[in-house]
Amino acid sequence: MSDYGLLIDYKYCTGCHSCEVACKLRLNLPDGQYGIKLIDDKPWQIDEDTWEYKWLPVPTKLCDLCADRIEAGKTPTCVLHCCAHVMEYGKVEDLAVRMKELGSRTVLFVP
Amino acid sequence: MPFGKVSTPVQWEEDGYTVTRTNSWSAPGDHPTGAGMKLYVKDGILEKVEGDPEHSILKGALPIRMLSLPEYVYNPDRVIYPMKRDPKKRGDNTAWERISWDEAYDMIVGKVKEYTEKFNSNSIITFVGTGREAGNWGPTISCRVFNSPNICYMQSGWSCYGPRMAVTSYVLGAPYPEVDYAAQFPDSYDDPRYTYPGCILLWGKEPLKSNPDGFWGHSLVDMMKKGTKFITVDPRLTFEAANSEFWLQPRPGTDTALAMAFLNVIINEELYDYDFVENWTFGFEEFTKRIQDMPPAKAAEICGVPEEKIIGAARFFAKSKPGAVQWGLAIDQNPNGVQLGECLIAIMAICGCIDVPGGNVMGAIDIGGLGSGYSDLDPQDKINEQIGVDEFPALVRTLQFTDPDSVLDQLESGAPFKLKMGFFTSANAIANPCNVPKRWENALNTLEFNVATDIFINPTISATCDLFLPVNTYAERDMYVATHYGAVGLWIGGIKKAITVGEAKSDVEILRTLGKKLRPELWQYDTDVEYINDQKLKTLGITMEELWEHGWWHVDYEYQKYAKGKLRADGLPGFMTPTGKIELYSTMIEAWGDDPMPYYKEPPTSPVSTPEYAAEYPLVLSTGARTWSYFHSEGRMVPKLREVEPNPLVDINPKDAKKYGIIDGDWVWLENSYGKCKMKASVQPGQKEGALAAQHGWWYPERDASAPELFGVYEVNVNNLTPYKTVGVLGFGAPYKCLMCKIYKA
Ligand code: SF4
Ligand code: SF4
Ligand code: SF4
């Protein structure tokens, strides 16, 4: 399992919650439980013209990397539904190469 | 043929599910964005939904409002049978009794006939909400079924889309022009005719959350990734603002001054497109003189934006090729908004943004657009009898809707005649758009017979209605969706029925059935599809069946139509305005009785125009802050959506919070001379100092539905603070985004 992971280009993550809700619906989770949890860092100011404004979706212990979907030849539901198309699923080594292409502010999770 | 490309039929079997390919609209919630979706049904039950990766624009993405569709469809609060209630028991939500559709139709037909005979059919008034599909059918049901010209959108100054549509029709001779997001091409951004915008000027709008008017908000992120730059004009820090080259944070309601200053810089520094100005605009010289009234230094003082930022942003935009402007609801919700609209079209025009790749695209044709039915009024000149036409002729004649405040007057006074029956089609007035909502509730209760079509019993229905007709969702109907209500013709998607829930019916089925009973000569159609094919799609040469087969249809788009004689009825080059040009000096606005060129006017109440008022109510208040979870007053009962956004929020700058002793998460009252409401404070360093941004449309489905509680709507309704008939010269624009209030801990 640890051969695969999720790459998130979080500089373009808009905080839309689609990954979070899509995952909850798939895993049928009650209020307060998540397969991937969107972490909110309230925007704060660096200098006059620069704001730190970011969200970060973090997979939890409940994330199984959408094993059944992968088996059926689909992408994980969080990846498919991400409104900003900033999530990718794949082999860790391939994702590491992608990370280099995407440049700054990316993160790779191996749940 | 510019049809979409799909690899599946419209329905197929997969894993024990019947899967249906469709495009979302409403109900429930969104503007006509047409997200491509697959609906998974087992044993007649919609179990889950998925985004469609083959959709040309969304490519599988789905906002949470769509992902949670099953929780909406099967919500325990949903009402799926017709119900009636004794008019004496309005407000008592326990007094509803289930009836059959036949009984419901008979009641309506009986009343319509009675009121038409005794009083004139004008005494029947149709109320529409915003954004939902039903809005499309308001004029049809009013004119073509009830034979009444009185259609009402209950928001003072028609402050949603109306002012922008009016000003574009005057100045540009076309509907509202949209940022080019390649939606017209089946291959989307890959089409060789397309170019990404160099810079998008985002003015008073938050497209990511709102998917405004059918524009897919996240396409801005697609463009951002390809190098498009942004300038954002917004008192709030949004994702868009944080990722902009320039973020200008004006005091709410002052941005006409800011836009004039942009033009001042662009014109005086000669950064404009000479050729376009020379050939395709009217009144440039006078306009140049007028714009001298607003040097950037003066605007800086009015708006509270640094002068060098105004100059920098204006230069940056003018030098970006192509530039595009996206302008939002803040233009509509401002009594000075017509002038702001004139300025923004002027910026588009003189910077060469109009109808070029990556600029602002214009609708060539109306693809199955907003309301039709006016021509079915009998006699035709009934259109001249719309309420408010004498006081606000520009508004009423341009939008072909009544003036909302004038309707309120007439309900209250019964003069010049008494209105008798209200038909609410997806219009939760007292929770959502109405100014003075309590006054509206009382006024609506002067009507003898009120019918509502909706999905849930909302506060307006509980308070005022006698008959409830259950409407179905887009998962339960055959329909089409055209972005921008069809006004900016880009593409149309097919909506395909996948399930049936209770006895809920489509909006079109309800109006068809009533139409057959009331004016049978106009209603020969036996199905919704027959009606749509004949009345909406025929002129395009396509059918619903083809839409389903191909997923969607794209208009065969041509840029620079003005140069090719493709905009005017007479086939000559130019625009559909009286002068044939884009009118920087607007002959139409002049003819309607306002200044033909832009001018700045302070908001009706502000620290500058009413310093005494401001001493008591020091903070500028904007309403209508958008959320991911909700579409206006919809969705508070949907668990997954409510979990994401459980409380009504008001954003406040940390310095203001400190000054008024408020900490993040405190319940607070917002109050002014009109009323008050209770919300939760969200302390946001990015919020403009001295200004608050409050959400709208809230009610609590979990609370008591009956009066006086009415789901807590009056406790939380920010429009308690919005005035009556405080609009621009022509009647457009109430100050929903530039009120004044005080804030204190609850
Ligand atoms: S991969 Fe699947 S299980 Fe893991 S976070 Fe994404 S949606 Fe949830
Ligand atoms: S779906 Fe994508 S953009 Fe939305 S919150 Fe998740 S990662 Fe961010
Ligand atoms: S102006 Fe805003 S609220 Fe009104 S219809 Fe357009 S997007 Fe919706």
Chart the SSEs and their pairings.
The complex is a heterodimer of chains A (about 110) and B (about 750).
Chain A: E1 4-8, H1 18-27, E2 36-47, E3 50-59, H2 67-71, H3 77-81, E4 87-91, H4 92-102, E5 107-109
Antiparallel strand pairs in A: 1-4, 1-5, 2-3
Chain B: E1 11-14, E2 17-23, E3 36-42, E4 45-51, H1 64-67, H2 69-73, E5 83-84, E6 97-98, H3 101-119, E7 124-128, H4 134-145, E8 151-153, H5 162-171, E9 178-179, E10 199-203, H6 207-210, H7 219-225, E11 229-233, H8 239-242, E12 246-248, H9 255-268, H10 274-280, E13 281-282, H11 284-291, H12 296-303, H13 307-319, E14 323-327, H14 329-332, H15 337-350, E15 360-361, H16 393-399, H17 404-413, E16 421-425, H18 437-444, E17 449-454, H19 459-464, E18 467-470, E19 479-482, E20 491-495, H20 507-518, H21 528-537, H22 544-550, E21 552-554, E22 582-583, H23 587-592, H24 611-616, E23 619-625, H25 639-644, E24 649-652, H26 654-659, E25 667-671, E26 676-683, E27 691-695, H27 713-716, E28 739-745
Parallel strand pairs in B: 7-8, 7-16, 10-11, 10-14, 11-12, 13-22, 16-17, 17-18, 23-27, 24-26
Antiparallel strand pairs in B: 1-2, 2-3, 3-4, 5-6, 5-18, 9-15, 19-20, 20-21, 23-28, 24-27, 25-26, 25-28
Helix pairs in contact in B: 3-20, 4-20, 5-15, 9-12, 9-13, 9-15, 12-13
Bound molecules: iron/sulfur cluster (3 copies).
The site of one iron/sulfur cluster (SF4) has 16 residues of chain A, from helix 1 and strand 3.
